[in-house]
Each structure stands twice: as C-alpha cells, then as structure tokens.
Write a structure and sequence with these properties.
This protein is of the alpha+beta class. The chain has a single domain, classed as Gcn5-related N-acetyltransferase (GNAT) (Aminopeptidase, 3-Layer(aba) Sandwich). It is 36% helix and 32% strand. The strands form two sheets. The chain has a five-stranded antiparallel sheet, with helices on both faces. A hairpin with a 5-residue loop joins strand 3 and strand 4. The longest helix is centred in the N-terminal third of the chain and has 18 residues. The radius of gyration is 15 Å and the shape is globular. The model has no long low-confidence stretch (mean pLDDT 93).
Length: 169
C-alpha cells in the first residue's frame, strides 16, 4: 500500500485503527452537514470497507497527517463507486485547518498517484452543490462539471478531471 508525501503532508492508508480520528473528523458540524456524522460502529464499518478496497483494488482513502507533527488532519484519496463504475478523488479535512491549501495539496497528490498507478481515463469528485469550499478545491485541481447525480439519496454534482496527455502527469 502506498504512502505519499508532499512538502507539508504525509498520506497513508486509513485503517480501523483510525476510528477515533475518523469519528472526530465527522463530528464537526461543518463536515457533517455535507457528509454526515458517523457513530463508532458505522465508522468501523466504513474503515473496514476502505481497508478491503485497498486489499482488493490497490487504492483507497488515505489518512492525511501533517509531516511536521504527525497530527491527523483529515482524509483524502481514491474511492471506487460501484454504482457509477468510477473512481472518485476526495478530501475531507478538519475545519480548523481549512484555508491553508491542505485539501488541494492532498487531493493533488492523490490524483497524481492515481494517474500514475491506475489506467482510468478520468477521476471524479462528487460534491454537494452547496459545498463551495470543495468546489473551489476541485476548480484549483482542474476539474470540470460532468453531470448532476445522486449519492446517498442526496443531490450531488459530479466533476471530472481527464487523464493528462502522456508526459504531463
């Protein structure tokens, strides 16, 4: 399994050992309004699914940590959605670290790794229409709107980023 580093971040595969940090992340109202809060049992189920995706598909969600301290600040990485037959890159960070470019940095590292290791012609970002901060991150990463859709019975806008031409990834 991959471990990615950027100038300021370390991204490592999420595991069930991250359950407390995962629950805490989703307990923030600013995060849960778009994703929802997770009880410990639901978080363990979600983390088990992420570990299985790493084992079965070779990719999944990463824990995002500050390189300087090792502090868990959120998640990023790739998620395969069977119902769409697409791989999404996502980012969810604690509100107290918003505005520092960490989501763009983590999302960009996840994308670059995804394009290097997977044959996908594009990756998606599935964002609730009112989630302006995530839409801005998607814009900075070069995504464009692909289609309106539904995820977990809620309206979602699907953005896409095509594979860069050979030699530009």
């Amino acid at each position: 399994m991959a471990v990615l580093t950027t100038d300021r971040l370390r991204l490592r595969p999420l595991t069930v050992d991250d359950v407390d940090s995962f629950v805490d992340l989703h307990a923030h109202e600013e995060v849960s309004r778009f994703i929802g809060p997770f009880s410990r049992s639901v978080a363990l189920d979600r983390l088990t699914m992420i570990q299985e995706q790493w084992a079965n598909r070779g990719h999944g969600r990463f824990a995002v940590e500050l390189r300087s301290t090792g502090e868990f600040i959120g998640i990023s990485g790739l998620q395969y959605w069977r119902q769409f037959d697409e791989v999404e890159v996502g980012w969810t960070l604690r509100p107290d670290v918003w505005g520092h470019g960490y989501a763009t940095e983590a999302g960009g590292a996840s994308l670059a790794w995804g394009f290097r290791t997977l044959p996908n012609p594009y990756f998606t970002a599935m964002i609730r229409p009112a989630n302006t901060p995530s839409i801005r991150v998607a814009d900075r990463l070069g995504f464009h709107m692909l289609r309106p859709d539904t995820l977990f019975d809620r309206p979602t806008t699907v953005y896409a980023l095509p594979r860069p031409p050979a030699g530009n990834s």
